[in-house]
Amino acid sequence: MGQSNSKLSEDGTKIFTPVVNIDQSLSTKFEELTESDIVRRLREDSELENALSAKLLESKAKVEKQLEDAFEKVPDINKKLKSLAKDTSSTQLYEDLANLRKELESQRESTQLSEEAGKAKEELVTCLQKNTEKPLNCRKEYAEFLKLVADI
After folding, report:
1. Measured between alpha carbons, how far is 10 from 45 in angstroms, rounded to an integer?
2. Is 99 within the bounds of a domain?
3. CB-CB neighbours of 120 under 10 Å
4. Model confidence over 6-30: pLDDT tens digits?
5. Fewer C-beta neighbours within 10 Å, C or N terminus of the chain?
6. pTM exceeds 0.70 for this model
């Protein structure tokens, strides 16, 4: 691969020309290490576990607080429902249901367009379809429709 081959020594072993020199400070650091790789790995794992468990405890406390806040709101609703259930009879419920139906019908009637508004809507739509490139030509129809809808 290189330009020159490795040289064979007198006893037949190969001698590689680049010699690796290890710095003295690096070798002393290796000698000063008292813990093995396994011990260091176990220590790091335990530190990581401790950090994760602390974060999990913080998250758990946050979630518990949020649940407590949510449950504080729920009892008020439950109390109202229970009091309504105790106080109302079937006849009262039928009356309330009839009142709600009447209110719903009145809202439906108020939201339905009158005949004039319906005609104005149709005129506006046809004008806009005719003037697709120039919708400002339909200002009059738009103003009429807006006026009729505002009255509703």
Report:
1. 50
2. no
3. 21
4. 565 567 676 666 667 778 888 888 7
5. N
6. no
Question: 101: which 2 tokens?
Answer: 């139906």
d(CA 145, CA 127): 12
Q: Where are the alpha helices (DSSP H) in 88-135?
A: 90-111, 115-130
Q: Burial, 145: exposed, middle or buried (Cβ in 10 Å; 0-12, 13-18, 19+)? A: buried
CA 148 distance to own-chain centroid: 43
Task: Please report, to the nearest 10 degrees, the dihedral formed by the alpha carbons of residues 116, 119, 120, 121 taken in order.
Answer: 120
Domains contained in the chain, number:
1
Provide the domain limits for residue 46.
25-74
Secondary structure of residue 15 in the 3-state scheme: strand
What is the per-residue pLDDT across 76-127, written as a single tens digit (0 to 9) for each? 666 666 666 666 677 887 888 888 888 888 877 666 667 777 788 888 889 8
With respect to residue 53, please indicate whether it lies within any of the assigned structural domains. yes
Q: Which two tokens stand for residue 76?
A: 């008020």
Q: Quick check: 124 and 138 in contact, CB under 8 A? A: yes
14 SS3 class: strand
Cα(100)–Cα(82) distance, integer angstroms: 21
C-alpha span between 76 and 138 (Å, rounded): 54
